[in-house]
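[job 4417] fold queue: 2 targets
>>> target A
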Amino acid sequence: MLEKVITMPVSLIVGLYVARYLGPENFGALSYALSFVGMFLAIATLGLDNIVVRELVKHVKTADEILGTAFLLKIAGFVLMWIAVLIAIFLTDNDLDTNMLILIVASGVVFQASNVIIYHYQAVVQSKYVVLARIIPLTVSSVAKIVLIYFSSSLEWFAWVYLLDAMVLSASLIAVYSLQSGGIFKWRWSLGVAKKLLRDSWPLMVALGCYYLYQKIDQVMIGEMIGMQEVGYYSASSRLYEAIIGVSLLLVGTFKPKLISDYMGSKRMFWRTCESLLLAEVLIGYVVFLMAFFFSEEIINALYGVEFSSSAPIFIVHTISVVLMMGAAVRSGYIEIINKTQIIMITTFVALVLNVVLNYFLIGMYGSIGAAVATVITQLFALYLLGYYFVDMRRITKLQFEALLVIPLIARRFFNNAG
């Protein structure tokens, strides 16, 4: 959590600085490249992340086999991802410069194979080493971006910074691991372990694939249907939206141990905690929405500059999504607690299909703001209405709607306290 508190503001501030320097069109092109590669990240990860952590906890004595096998599997995943990216590029109308940005960003994914070291430290509950390894590349890449702006560098150099960031993170993880555990050369490949990991991870890879597509497809579709300048306007709003949601996730993460404890102890206390957390999150969301509704242009101009003023109406729509996401923040934690992760997979797949269809029509009719509207409709359906389809989700879904209305939850808390 401390890492997020440090890295989120730094990333946001440096990102704002970069966006102001590049302007809407170049910033849009860079955002398009990042989103394009992001759609294929699930292939590179192979859904191994949580599976590897679980296996490391269960089988401490064979950790070197698990780490070595996962490392090589991730390199194979990168090769598959690279092939998928190349095929996808040929299906677009991108110019050579845009395709170069995509290929540079995609090249950095190979270094994520060393993320298996992160899984090791998660399994042994030693996050401090991961935090140290992550802060180093953040510092290097932030300084690099500021230097590039100072020397008025071209857009392509900023794509190389993402590659540099991946390289430095990989080197930092390997260095820390070598000092603590003796290095990666003792890792071993095991065909049996590989089969087991892939057998357990492929459903998660499918779920992650749907999630990454859902998260990134809007910017790619805007770029294909309208142009990079509109991607820049949309991405500027998205960065603020994602930062706000990040704060929400931190809040839920803080209370997650209490939610688990209450669920294992008193169900009555668990639901009261859910009510309180949902109400607090939604009220924060409404404050953000009201600020955006009245001051969106001033906020955008102050952060990005007047060149991005067209992002203001998109930001207003995105803050409606903030309210919805705040109201659904406890939902994912609840699903994990009751161990019904298949609900997330189904919901994400439905959200992806609906979002693509809505984007196709709404972007064509209303431009980039149509993509933001598509996101709101998708979230309302997938994170709220669809919840009534699952028996295990009906109570938490009811609380989500009550939280959106605010008054029912406040009235219930008042009468409960009075009683």
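>>> target B
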Amino acid sequence: MVALTINAMKWICFFAMLAAVTATAEPLVFQSAERQTALLELYTSEGCSSCPPAEKWLSKLKDAPGLWNEFVPVAFHVDYWNNLGWRDKLSNEQFSDRQRSYAQAWSAENIYTPEFVLNGREWGDWLGLRGAPSASENKVGVLRVNSDSGKHWQVNFNPVEKNGATGYEATVAVLVSGLNSDVTAGENSGRVLNHDFAALSLVTCPLISQTNGFQGTVVTDANSKDIAGRRALAVWVTHSGELKPLQATGGWLSQPMKMILPANQSTQQ
């Protein structure tokens, strides 16, 4: 029999403990109450000099007692600033299109950053507000999401109003928090920007009527964009084909980590 070194035995014990922890990991479950949980969206960009105060305000909500239960925050980094000297690594054309869809629904002529949207409506009351927006008293139904793997999510929405619904859709966003980005060009050149609740991906799926509510399955990738940081999940449900959220829920997927995004190169040569 080959004798094991002390280091080899330590590694064997480590992997055994890791396997035990993995095997006994509990499913992830996020659930709203019947009362409406607000969806708070911020449209922002690292290329916009007016955006850091808005993101700083949003970051303060990490310590708010109503986080995930009374409100779900999501920061969408748009891409239409990317041709002005600095490319935002968190930006996505899909997020810009979502903001344009809101503008079209409101008959607004322009889109801009920073822009907050609260429960599907343009919202400017964050200026001077110390805490989160006030919770709604409307009872709309219970939204529940669960996963055994952290990738395949079962979504169930049980609305209070059982009649008259034309159908529902669920939208799921993977978020990242705890990022510092060293900006070396554009309007924020020389600044270190802090990011929380930044969307990495956005997926929408239809919910099918079942005996115990409306159900669907969404597949997400929590490691998308290869950006390290603390992950969270934001989920909201709407009427089919609409933007205005009816109910929302979410929560943290990992422990806090402070990460630094590497400096991008200027888009101008």
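[job 4417] complete. Note on B: Helices lie at 6-23, 51-60, 93-106.
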